[in-house]
Amino acid sequence: MYRAVVFDFDGTIIDTEQHLFQIINNHLTGNGLDPISVDYYRQSIGGAATELHNYLEAQLGLEKKSAIYQEHNETSVNLPINKEVEALMKYCKQRHIPMAIATSSL
């Protein structure tokens, strides 16, 4: 029997990472710039993502970079919960298994 379950937030409970990737590329292409690649994005996310933040600020400026994260924060509340994770959470709750959420995001 499990004593507890810890869920990672981004990419497990809700796919906020794919959502941010799309928003970033919408802003870049909307400003006449090339989109970033999936590989570059994946290497840059997690933790502080300093390289990605610096790149966006260099390409767009501080105000437009901030607009990306503002849009992401405002629209992430509408993202669906992963159905399999939701079912597992219900299972854990029914069996009184403690749960926690972990994330490397700030």
Largest sheet: 2 strands, parallel
Count up the helices.
5
Radius of gyration, in Å, reads 17 Å
Q: Pick out the low-confidence regions.
A: none
Q: Describe it for me?
A:
The chain is mainly alpha-helical and 106 residues long. The chain is elongated and about 55 Å long. The model has no long low-confidence stretch (mean pLDDT 92). The protein is built from five helices and two strands, in the order βαααααβ. It has one domain. Strands 1-2 form a two-stranded parallel ribbon. α1 (16-30) packs antiparallel against α4 and α3 (50-60) packs across α4. This is Phosphatase phosphohexomutase.
What structural keywords apply?
mainly alpha; 106 residues; 5 helices; two-stranded parallel sheet; PGP-like_dom2; 2 strands; HAD_2; 8% strand; HAD-like_sf
